[in-house]
Amino acid sequence: MLNLTSNILDKILSAEALLIGCSAGGFNLVYELVSALPAEFPLPVVVIIHRSRRYKSSIEELLDTKSQACVKLAEDKEVLKKGIVYFAPPDYHLLLEPEGCFSLDSSEPVLFSRPSIDVTFKSVSDVYKQNVIAMLFSGANEDGAEGLCYIRDRGGLIVIQDPKSAEVRRMPEAALNKCRGGLVLDNVAIHAFFTSITSCYK
Amino acid sequence: MEEFLHTGSGADTISFEELDELVLWINKLHGLDFRDYSKASLKRRVTRIMELRNLTLFDLKSLLINDFNFLEEFIIEITVNVTEMFRDPSFYRALREKVLPYLASFQRIKVWNAGCSTGEELYSFAILFAQEKLYNRAFLYGTDINTHVLEIAKRGIYDLKQMKHYIENYVTSGASGTLADYYTVEYGAASINHSLKKNILFSVHNLVSDGVFNEFQLISCRNVLIYFNVELQKQVLNLFYKSLCPLGFLCLGSKETMRDPELSKYFKIVDKTENIYQKIA
What we know:
Oligomer: heterodimer
Number of strands of chain B: 10
Distance between the termini of chain B: 64 Å
Strand order of the largest sheet of chain B: 6-2-1-7-8-10-9
CATH class of the largest domain in chain B: Alpha Beta
Number of strands of chain A: 9
Number of domains of chain A: 1
CATH superfamily of the largest domain in chain B: Vaccinia Virus protein VP39
Largest sheet of chain A: 7 strands, parallel
CATH class of chain A: Alpha Beta
Largest sheet of chain B: 7 strands, mixed
Radius of gyration of chain A: 15 Å
Number of helices of chain A: 7
Strand content of chain B: 15-25%
Number of domains of chain B: 2
Shape of chain B: globular
């Protein structure tokens, strides 16, 4: 078990969504985490992973059969529900509307990325304010760092994968340089963090 | 474990409430109505303009009132105008294989590309029609709320660097011949051939406030509805329904599935992944 302070536990209990951003080298960790989710995880989970639109990928379908939780692509104007894992569709930015549903956006890529982790992180933070948990894992560019700062500045909880345990360090390293004040967890601790979320809602 | 929790001192450049107010302002000043647009996307774009130009909300409002040119530029920048030739090659493949053979039975084929932006999609349609020897029977309308992008569309001159990417799309779509057959390179830019322009008309139409203006065999409106809220989406789909001839086709963006049960009973799904529908009732 992770030893989390009451401050962090409070933030977990008041959270309205858990966000995960990653790119190159982050897929395996996301795969393990989502596969291990219980059928009734207490939060909606939103995953922004960079992938090319040129290749049909079926991460969602694969994980949906593997995990007890429902895993799907986020759809335009779909209302977020707890316990469901939403993947950002390739080639669109994923935004959150004030009424609690997604919007897709096909405007310019940000840092060569669409979906952009920064864009989703900021948009969700605009709606849920301090009640957001955002995690950033392995990746080969600097997307996500700015979004993490934005969430931190608004009182959300941020978690960065320890670059030492990341397959590609650049993304978590950029986040650490730009954005102090988050939890820095290795892979074992990240798994434990998820278990803590489930158990602290019981 | 490092821990340093913030209390939440970060302020938004513009809040959702302020955005609502701004939208009402724009409606009064300019006449365009963004009330039923997706708020999240609008907020992002307004925020970007304010940050790039270093404007407070107060600055922004006074510029909008006092500087008509700024108002025009602002309108251009808050609407998304990202488009490509042959974007989603698999869509064009489906169009060629499942829709055009059917359209070939019509004597006149009228096409409406709603929210055409800078015209790349409508020219892609024109090319497809030319290849299938349907161009001379077709008339293609491109409409947008934005006069500025329509000017670019009419010119039909595009960056050569982008053309490289469009050629990839074109090849992936399985089209025959080469894209270069349809444009000429002048002064480092690609200029769409005149022969492709003769049955094309670009003009202003506002999906929020304007109504039916013709009857079409094919309507394409891709990656536009995502910028609208559910009510406006429904209203616009209804406009398309009324603008289609019996058995006419409707093409939506690859992530714009028609989910409203009220509307979807009037349409048959022609291609589920590409979101191509046919009016059946």
